[in-house]
Sequence to fold (783 residues):
Amino acid sequence: MTSFLSSPVSRRSVLIGGAALLGTAGLSACSPSGASSSGSKTLNVAYFGTQQAADATAKVAQPFIKANPGVTVKFNGINGTDWNDFFTKVLTQIAAGNPPDIVSVATEGVQLFAQKKLAHPLDDYVKRDKDQLAPYFKDVHPSLVEAMMYQGNLYELPTDFNAGNMYFNTNLLQKSGLQLPSPSWTMDDFHSVATSLKSNSGAVPFDWVVRLWGSWTSFMYANGGNLVTEGKYTGGDWLWSQFYANDPAAAGRGGGWKWGAPTANSDAVVESLDYMVELANSGLSAKPDVGGGSTLQGLFASNKIGMSIGGGFWAGGLHNAGMQNGSFDVQFFPKWKVQRHLFGTGGYGIFESSKNKDLAWEFLKSLVEPAAIDVLTSGNSTTPARRSMMTADRYSTTGPKNWQVFYDTLDKLPNTAPIPAPPYYNAMANALNQRTTQAMSSGNAKSALDGLQQDLETAAASVGS
Amino acid sequence: MTTLTTRTKSLRAASGPEGARVRNRKRAARREGAFGWLMISLSAASILVFTALPIVFTFVLSFFSWDIISPPQFVGLQNFTHLAADQSVIHSFGVTGLLAALIVVLQIVVGLAMALLVQQRKSTWARSIFRTAFFLPLLVSAASISIVFSYLFDDHFGVINYYLQLLHLPAVAWLSSSAGATATIVIVAVWQQLGFVFILFVAALGSLPKDVLEAVSLDGSGPIRTFFSIKLPLISPTIFFAAVIGLINAMQIFDQPYVMTKGGPGDATTTTVMLIYRTAFQNIQFGYGSAISVVLFVLLLVLTGLQFLISRKWVFYS
Fold:
């Protein structure tokens, strides 16, 4: 120490020292996680949620770890307000040279990850382990599987899903002298329920959140519209003929949804958003916020909202917000031109850059076992993808009474489809949020949707749909 | 000639006892220098790694197209020519300019008014209480404050509209109209940042020369005249400092619009930094996002330079 202090410090030595320090910092920042690069037996899972939730979910890996001595599975929680936020953070993690082996991805990001060659197709693994997977596919609706495909390849095995159904605050329904509508209710019925709730309950009859899933987009689907043209990629026969040969619900399935040219200012879409503007202007709905929907659940639970769009995950959310079983219920979304619902499905994909793909596949298979899905959907935080797991017992604590609606949305309404999520999903979600609030503020849905059409055309052109 | 003589003298001195003293002094100075380098090395390295290099990287990246996943592609000035015609970028600069102007002016006016009021309190205890109360919001994160205020200002369920309606006043579309959302963001930003400006003015007013104020008072000048003719010119350097710092901060406003309005309704409150975040991190266009950052950086430099130029006409340092 003394000799260092007493020796003269030249500019050159400072520069050399500084460069060495920077070099070290740079190298440490660029090196990928030790686990996957060294080929050791550690699987890194990027999990959408807080680290606390990730730690709680990590117990799903215990049977797998027990069956594979020496293997560790690390769940890294990446928090975000919505899937858009989550993808941004995962992509930043990739840019930092630290990609995970496995990532939890919902419909929103399947095509984005697949198109960018970030996700590894599971086709060969599924074909190889077809006997082992047959009971799983038999238990899962083909629409969920198809939503995990892109250009003929399968990228994930669905573990859970949520379709946009309609939730009712039964306290407010009773106060207004109303009952849960019938499954075949229409938009006229919806309007009349909303009017009655407004007059009799004092609450806001209907509220919603600005986002792609379960927003005014549910009305758009029921009105027969979509933001982009719908098509199917060819391919996927290997899967349908193997696992769904005798299932009529698999007829017409292809190699994944092909989201084509934007149609955001088509008549059906404009009519849907116009309806939302009128609903707000007539006091039958609140002007919505942009966000993930947790505030909406809080308001619903405190009897301030009569109806809102929710999926199976709302059961757990409302229960956690303090609602007793019986104080809320659920029904199909009303029929407008059609009674078409939208849904999103979740699962886990393998990163192309993973050095442990075989091991990751074994883990993915373990995640679709009923016991694992039970952990992943605990507290009804989401809806199991396996039909056999939809039981009265599952909803006995949280409710709702009419829980069958969740899976019936897939089974009884065959035109139900995933949300449009092309590879430019992030840009689409941002543009949709912006243009929706513009329409609600200005009252001019057509002008806002003309803008959205332009935004989507630009996004599609820059990414290549 | 003089230099030569000095050098000869110092050479002579270097060989005698005087030379030993000079050598010791130089050694001590070198030792001190080395210690100084050691002390600043960590800060210098962190500034280099976390501030200087990212800035340089941003400048370089602005000439590339990069989506994180694929290798960056050099596109020359394409990002800059594109943004010059991009209405969303131009609009965001307009929004940011409006917000910044309102925030800076209100912060200075309200901060100064509050500082004057607090200075008039005779009780030291009361002054301390007010100073602490006004400064506290600055210590809370802008994101947390924005979340709380978004509940307060909610059009349907917010407390503010609830009380307005109790008073038979119409509810205001705080967050769902362009004007309302702009006003709400300004209110929240001013409320939170006010403490900083307030403390600056309290210090400036506290250090005004008492003899001058007494002389003015003896001359029979009223409080308004005293404020505009004496106090205001004397604290003009503080006003200038608050304006420069306030403008730099306000032009980079992000937290409040991001949390409270997500830039809406429409793009009414989409600020430039929000647009940079959206472009780079959500639409994964890092090159284009960097180009917008560079333009914002240059604009801030120009605006600050202009403030310094104009300050010569109204800031009094003596």
Residues 165-227+263-340+402-463 of chain A form a domain with the D-Maltodextrin-Binding Protein; domain 2 fold (CATH 3.40.190.10). Chain A touches chain B through 45 residues (CB under 8 Å).
